[in-house]
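Risk register update: the risk of archive-format incompatibility is retired. Evidence:
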Amino acid sequence: MNVVGLIREAAAASRTRFAFELLPPLKGEGREVVYDAIDPLAEFDPAYINVTFHREGLRRTVRADGSVEEHVGRHRPGTVGISAAIRHRYGVETVPHIICGGLSRYDIEDALIDMDFLGLHNVLALRGDKSKSEERFTPHPQGHAHAADLVRQIAAMNRGEYVDGGAAGHRTRFSIGVAGYPEKHLDAPDADEDLRRLREKTEAGADYIVTQMFFDNGRYFDFVRRCRAAGIDRPIIPGIKPLAALRHLEGLPALFGITIPDELRREALAYPDRIREVGIEWATAQALELKRAGVPVIHFYTMGRTDNIRRIAQKVF
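Archived output:
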């Protein structure tokens, strides 16, 4: 069953399911790194597991003669392969991410064909971040500037339509997820424009929405109300990340444009030596309230470390 089917099934059963997101292993690491992160969470019957996709970067290697060689590479390749490996080992649906940044329409099509051949029928379609060498996001010359255009390409493949056109071909059956931003995307000029962009993604063919992390459930509930008022009727899955380090107090707002509530900030600063405990307690309270509200799935951002997610899951699921 694809992800949107799992979401609808959970909603119909008035059940809240567990889902989480992982990073592909660093280049040179094996899949065991990922398995070690999943194994502690497997007992909670995850509805699905997301696997992120990472931008390319410019790397410099100093040769023996002192000259410098520059090349483009990724620190965390293998999104599609590790998604297939997870599905094969655990029998759980996986959701590889795919982004606009750094990819042409042809690159995207090839990746989607690989996913389809491997039996991966879910995808999270994102614009992606700017690369470290860019001042602002710049699309590939043959790529997409916005996630809505990426969604259109995936939806077209579901109809058997490919980049080069021609006769109708094999129809893929991707369940398409997109991102939503309770506090607006960092690059959006205002919340109304951000909501317009989200509606464009759903009209392009997105099946469900997963939110950026938030630390105040009121922002999620308000976001859902605003979406419904704007005619966006897709399931909206809340995304939670437990605070895990003092640097997150400044780093997360700067990187993602999110707000740390004053109460959480005060508690973290009052007990810096037990910051992970503070984060676990706060995220557990968030998850329990969301569960009482009847959300079908709660999505956790792990960044590859899952000991704190396990402790939250023990209390919620």
